[in-house]
TrEMBL record:
This is Glutamine ABC transporter ATP-binding protein. The keyword ATP-binding applies. Residues 2-236 form the ABC transporter domain. The lineage of its organism: Bacteria, Pseudomonadati, Pseudomonadota, Alphaproteobacteria, Hyphomicrobiales. InterPro entries: AAA+_ATPase, ABC_ATPase_HisP-typ, ABC_transporter-like_ATP-bd, ABC_transporter-like_CS, MetN_ABC_transporter-like, P-loop_NTPase. Transmembrane segments: none annotated. NCBIfam families: PRK09493.1 (NF007027). It comes from the Bacteria. Belongs to the ABC transporter superfamily. The gene is glnQ. The keyword rRNA-binding does not apply. CDD domains: ABC_HisP_GlnQ. Keywords: ATP-binding, Nucleotide-binding, Transport.
Length: 240
């Protein structure tokens, strides 16, 4: 589904991703952890071509991130992204936010778009909130709307960048619950998070990234129980 081949991403003379090689198969639930500034967000943003890479190759579902603008548009449709700050349209209701993708991007008719949106709001447990504006929803509810909005475009892959970091602890579980359900349904997911317990329970794979290198790549339970480096052990101690 995703293949990085010696990908270098830099800003000016700051190399953020340093010749990253990484292959992610369909259905994998990949968690990405690492210190602040290590390149986690940049790696995610490269996958849906919010960033362009300086060298190497990046292939998403057979499409090249260095390809034509049509190819890049297709990658962006296939890779849904959920951000730490929910990024909903404030002047649209929950329902309208979720209808936006089907209407504008998939060019569905209004009736079909509304049916898709109502289905997805039900899936994230928010049928009762369809007519509410973002400002009338809790953070956890807003993030669930944001997930529904991404899903409405029918992505093949979902990217999550610290989806619960802006939430109060008591609201996190409702978002994690929705993510767990998506994982159970077989969605391919790449998740940046500090929720180590969640990564252990739900992840099929854990990557530890440090200073633009993938230092470890393995089974979450094993890596977390027996960190193979001082670097990872220290990081885990720091965030626990
Ligand atoms: P993480 O998500 O792991 O905290 P990021 O991928 O956001 O890290 O950032 C990695 C490095 O790239 C940091 O040093 C950050 O300051 C730098 N960086 C990120 N985005 C930009 C940008 N648009 N311009 C310049 N430097 C950036
Ligand atoms: Mg980040």
């Amino acid at each position: 589904m995703v293949e990085f081949r010696k990908v270098v991403k830099s800003y000016g003379n700051l190399d953020v991703l340093k010749a990253v090689d990484l292959a992610i198969d369909k259905g994998e639930i990949v968690f990405l952890i690492g210190p602040s500034g290590s390149g986690k967000s940049t790696l995610l943003r490269c996958i849906n071509v919010l960033e362009t890479i300086q060298s190497g190759d990046l292939i998403v579902d057979g499409l090249s991130a260095k390809g034509t603008s049509a190819e890049i548009r297709q990658i962006r449709l296939e890779a849904g992204m959920v951000f730490q700050q929910f990024n909903l349209f404030p002047h649209m209701t929950a329902l309208e936010n979720v209808m936006f993708g089907p209407l504008k991007v998939r060019r569905s008719g209004k009736v079909e778009a509304e049916a898709i949106a109502r289905d997805l709001l039900a899936k994230v447990g928010l049928s009762e909130r369809a007519g509410h504006y973002p400002s009338q929803l809790s953070g956890g509810q807003q993030q669930r709307v944001a997930i529904a909005r991404s899903l409405a475009v029918r992505p093949k892959l979902m990217l999550f960048d610290e989806p619960t970091s802006a939430l109060d602890p008591e609201l996190r579980h409702e978002v994690l619950q929705v993510m767990r359900q998506l994982a159970d349904e077989g969605m391919t997911m790449v998740v940046v998070t500090h929720e180590i317990g969640f990564a252990r329970d739900v992840g099929s794979r854990l990557l530890f990234i440090d200073k633009g290198h993938i230092l470890h790549d393995g089974d979450p339970k094993e890596l977390l129980a027996n960190p193979p480096s001082e670097r990872l052990a220290g990081f885990l101690q720091h965030i626990r």
